[in-house]
Amino acid sequence: MKKRQRTGSRKAQVKIPFPMVLANFLVFIAVFGLSYVWLCSRCDTLGQEIKRMETVQRDTHRRMINEQDRWSNLLAPANLDRALKRHDLTMRLPDEQKIVRVRTGTTASVVALASSK
C-alpha cells in the first residue's frame, strides 16, 4: 500500500527574508570596488609606460641633435676639403656649358632640355 503523506506535520519553519535591496547594494559595492582597483592598476601601468616612452624619445632626440651636429660639421667647407684630400679625390666646379638650370614650376622647359639632347 501507499504510504500516506503527511501534509501538515512539519513544524513551521521561520524564514528570515534577506532583503534584496541590501544584496543588490552589496553586489554594486563589490563590483565598484573591483573596477576601481582595476582602473588604478591600469593607470599605474600606463603611467610607467608613458615615462619609459618619454625617456626613449628624449634619448632619440638627443642622438638626432648629435648626428645633425656631426653632419653639419662634416659639410663645412674646410672639413669637406680635408675629407677630399684624405681620400685623394679631386673635385672642381663644372664648366658653364655643362650646367643645366631648371626653373621651378615649369616642367615644359625640363622636357624641352631633355628632348634637345
What descriptors fit this protein?
3 helices, 117 residues
Q: How does the SSE layout of this entry go?
A:
Layout (H helix, E strand, L loop, with lengths): L19 H55 L2 H10 L20 H10 L1
How is this structure best summarized?
This protein is mainly α.
Question: Describe it for me?
Answer:
With about 120 residues, the protein is an all-alpha fold. It has one domain. Helices cover about 65% and strands about 0% of the residues. The chain is built from 3 helices and no strands. About 0% of the residues are buried. The mean pLDDT is about 85.
Judging from the principal axes of the Cα atoms, what is the shape? rod-shaped
The total count of strands amounts to 0
Structural class: mainly alpha
Helical content (DSSP H or I, runs of 4+) = 55-70%
Biggest sheet layout: none
Number of helices: 3
Determine the N-to-C terminus distance: 123 Å
Q: Can you give the mean pLDDT?
A: 85
- SSE run: HHH
- Structural domains: how many: 1
Portion in strands: under 5%
Radius of gyration: 43 Å
Low-confidence stretches: none
